[in-house]
Amino acid sequence: MIDRARETALKTLYKIDKNEGYSNIILNEELEKSKKNLSEKDIGLISEIVYGTITWRLTIDEIIKKYSKIKFKKLSLWILNILRMGIYQIIFLDKIPKSATVNESVNLAKRYGHKGSANFVNAILRKVNKNDYKNFSNILNDEDRISKLFSMPKWIIEELLKEMNMENVEQICKCSNMKPKINIRVNNLKTNKQKLKEELIKRNINFKDGKLEDFIVVEKMKNIEDLDLFKQGYFTIQDEMAGLISIVLEPQKGQNILDCCSAPGGKTTYIAELINDKGNIEAWDIHEHRVKLVQENAKRLGITCINAKVQDAIIYNEENKDKYDKILLDVPCLGLGVLKRKPDIKWTRNKEDIEEISKLQMQILDTCSKYLKKGGELVYSTCSILKSENEEIIENFVQKNYDFEIVNLNDKFKKFNQDKYKSSSYIKLFQDSENDGFFIAKLRKK
After folding, report:
1. 240-445: what fold?
2. Which residues pair with 380 in a beta bridge?
3. Where are the domains of the chain?
4. CB-CB neighbours of 3 under 10 Å
5. Residue 433: what are its φ and ψ, rounded to 5°?
6. Three-state secondary structure along the chain?
7. Which of 117, 202, 269, 302 sits between 20 and 30 A of 410, alpha carbons compared?
8. In CATH, what number does 182-237 get?
9. Is 160 within 8 Å of 196 (Cβ atoms)?
10. What pLDDT does residue 419 have?
11. Distance CA 133, CA 247 (A)
C-alpha cells in the first residue's frame, strides 16, 4: 500500500525537477488534485518533505554519492527523488521512525522503478544515519564545510565572501535554511491590531507582536489563507521587513504614487493602507496574470485607490514624465535574501545571472526615475544582499544623474540596519531567525 502523502510529495519533487518549475506553484497544484484524499496532517507532511528536500538538496546528494555504486547522473529522476525524500526524513525529521521511512521509500521505488530499484533504495537508506550529516562539520576547508553543512552552492558562498567574513557568511547560510515565520500585516482599513488579536485568540491561534506596529508573528499556523479572517481581508501575509519598504517610502494622502514592479501586491496594498486609501497608486507588472493578483489582493482588502495594469518598467513612456510624488522600485533580483521561503533559487540561479540581473535593475531605475517629480522621492529595494544588485546600482546611478541625491535612511530607521560594512545611507537586512534579507535605498530628485 503506497502512502498517499509521500507519493504526492514525490510527484511534486519530480515535476519541479522535470519542468524547472516553482515549488510553491507545483506543490499547490498537486495538493489541489489530491486534497480530497488527504488529511490536514498529510498536507503538513507533504509540505515538510517537499520544502525540506529542496532546501537540503546539495547536502542530501552528497550522502547519496557516498553510498551509491551507480553514478549519480545515471540515476532515474524518480529514484533520485525517492532517495532524497528518504534521506531528508532520516537525517532531519526526528518524529518519523527510520524503519517507516525505509519501507515507504521501497514501496515507492517498486511503483516508480522496478525490483532492482527497490533493492537499491533499500540498501542505501539502511546505511544512512545522522552521523552522515554531522561529519560534514569536520571538513577542514571552510567553503566546503559551509556548502555541505548548510546545502549552499559554492558560488553563493564565494560571492558573499567578497563582502564579509567567513563567520557572517556561515550565519547567513545557516539562517537561510530555517523555517520561515508567518508574519501578518493588520489591515487598518477594516480592523485594528487589538481587534485582530482578539479574533486570533478566539480561534486558539498563538501569536506575538512583530517589530513593526502593524505586524503580528503567528506561530504554528497551517493553511492560513483558508482562515476566514484572511478571506475577509483583515490581514495580509507579508514578511515584516518587506513591509518596512513601504514605510520607508513615507507615502502621504492625496499623492500620486507609482509601484513599478508591484505583483503580487504586498507592498502596493500596504502603501494604500498607509494613506488610508486616499490617493492614486498605479501598480505595474509585465505579466497580465500577475496584475490580476494585485487586483484580487486589493479587492479582498477593500482598497479602491490602486490602478493595476500591464506595463513594462523598462520601456519609457513620455506621458509619465515628472508625474509621480513617490515611486517604489522593488526590482527583480537574485532573491538571495529569501532562500528560506524560496529554496529553489539555490538550484535555478547561477553566478552568470548576477551581471544580467544587475543590468535589468539599472535599466528599470534609469527609466522610472524620469517619472519622478522634482522634490519627489524614490525607494529602490531588493530581496537580495549582494552589493552588485544594491549599493553599486545606486551609487552608479547617482554619479550619472546629478539631479538625484541619496537620502540617509539611518536618520529615521537606524534600529533596523544590520550592515556593518557600508556607509550609513542605506538599510541592509540579512536573513535571521525571524526575517528575510532585504536592501532599501531612498533617492530624492532635487
Report:
1. Rossmann fold (3.40.50)
2. 329, 441
3. 4-133, 139-175, 182-237, 240-445
4. 17
5. -65, -20
6. CCCHHHHHHHHHHHHHHHHCCCHHHHHHHHHHHHHHHCCHHHHHHHHHHHHHHHHCHHHHHHHHHHHCCCCHHHCCHHHHHHHHHHHHHHHHCCCCCHHHHHHHHHHHHHHHCCHHHHHHHHHHHHHCCCHHHHHHHHCCCHHHHHHHHCCCCHHHHHHHHCCCCHHHHHHHHHHCCCCCCEEEEECCCCCCHHHHHHHHHHCCCEEEECCCCCEEEEECCCCHHHCHHHHCCCEEECCHHHHHHHHHHCCCCCCEEEECCCCCCHHHHHHHHHCCCCCEEEEEECCHHHHHHHHHHHHHHCCCCEEEEECCCCCCCHHHCCCEEEEEEECCCCCCCCCCCCCCHHHHCCCCHHHHHHHHHHHHHHHHHCCEEEEEEEEEEECCCCHHHCHHHHHHHHHHCCCEEEECCHHHHHHHCCCCCCCCCCEEECCCCCCCCEEEEEEEEC
7. 269
8. 3.30.70.1170
9. no
10. 57
11. 42
Does the CA dihedral 274-277-280-284 come out positive or negative?
positive
Q: Is residue 415's pLDDT more than 70?
A: no
Instruction: Give the strand order in the sheet containing 215-219.
Output: 206-209, 215-219, 182-186, 235-237
User: Per the structure block, which three cell numbers stand in for 442?
Assistant: 531612498
Distance of CA 324 to the CA centre of its chain: 29
Per-residue pLDDT of 305-331, as tens digits, reads 999 999 999 999 999 999 999 999 999
Q: How far is CA 431 from CA 42, 162, 338, 339, 434, in A?
A: 29, 18, 7, 9, 8
* Architecture in CATH of 4-133: Orthogonal Bundle (1.10)
The residue-averaged pLDDT of 12-39 equals 85
Banded pLDDT at 27 (limits 50, 70, 90): confident
Residue matched to cell numbers 509585465:
286
Distances from the Cα of 194 to the Cα of 18, 188, 189, 210, 426, angstroms: 47, 11, 14, 13, 32
**For residue 421, what pLDDT is reported?**
44
Candidates 173, 260, 261, 383; catalytic one: 383
Q: How do beta strands 372-382 and 438-445 pair?
A: antiparallel
Instruction: Quote the pLDDT of residue 407.
Output: 94
Note if 368 is an active site residue: no
